[in-house]
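Side project, low priority. Logging it here so it doesn't get lost.
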Amino acid sequence: MTDTEGVAPDATSPVTEPQAARETQPRLLLRFSPPVLLGLSLVLAAATSSLVGMDAAEWVAGGVLAAAALVLQLWWDRVARSRPGPSAVGAAYYSLRSVLAFGLAWINPFCAFYAAVGCFDIERLVPRRWIPLGLLATATTIAGAQIGGMPPDDTASWVFYGMLVAANLGIFLTVQQDAGKEEDRARKRVATIRELEHANLALERALVENAALHDQLLLQAREAGIADERRRLAAEIHDTVAQDLTGVITQLQVVTDTQEQEMVRVHAERALQLARHSLGEARRAVANLAPVALAEDDLPGALKKTVVRWSERTGLQAEFTLIGSDEPLHEEVEATLLRIAAEALSNTARHAKATRVGVTLSYMGEEVVLDVRDDGHGFDPSALPERDTASGFGLKGMRARAERLAGELTVEAEPGLGTAVSARVPLVPHER
């Protein structure tokens, strides 16, 4: 988690720093616009004083109003640092500036440039509900300049002045509304980008956690497979090699306890047969650990040879049948089915007392099915006792093998009617 947390500040900086830069530019522009436009208005007023006909009293009044506007601006520059957003103090500043602009425009219409700044910064100064009144004050001043100066000369001029006020106000409100919508969209875009950043960070953390979890699951699966194979091999040795060695010991004990040569010969031959059988079972257990049969043949060929060898060893009639078109399967699928078949045949030889056994391998679309059926005395599956890990591989182990491949193993048995073991696993093609 330390690495992912360390990325967070860098991930957010691409948005926050450019955003701060974009917000700083308009703030500087709006801060210096009032004094700049005030200076421009005074320059134009001086240049057009002869055209407008300004007398000495108007010059004095204009100078006083300009000085008041400058003092007001200096005061606001200090106050605005602690009040960056719309407020009652900002509305008071906007109102006083509008009054001073109206007075200057009354003296000289060209001073209306100073009033025009109210169209740009009203959203940052005045609360939303007072914006129409502020724009009305700005429209009143600008309309007066548009008619050539205040006050209008006659009734027609007053009517025309009112129309200009309404037109300017409508334009200002429309522009202000569009600007507000654009600002809302900009805020939403910033919020969306921040949400995407948080989502990306969460996704990166999840990917890191998933990778660690995947490695952990692989390790656990590998350890579980190794433990399961050890249990299977231990149970296999217990059921075959250990039992045969027990028989060898029993026969040899009989030999040591008897003095009759014929009895000694019989029991010695039995011990030799059990030892040979034990050696064969040990070799088969090792072969099951890494099926060498699949190195020489495909699954159908390996199953057929397994059935033939089992039939020769046990003296029971056994047949192998292939249904469907065989195709190369994943190595784990082939090994699992071969081991299930070998174990099912071994269980049949030990417990079923059968005379005929049939092994069928069926390729059925998306699945492969292995069936091992015998005509033995059968058993009651519901009465089958629980077996511990040392008592044999058996049905429980075969079922675990099938389930590891997302398959299933079913057993159909009934006393006196034989047993059918069916393993059904997904058809996973061979990896080329």
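Brief comment: DSSP finds 13 helices and five strands in the chain.
Revisit when time allows.
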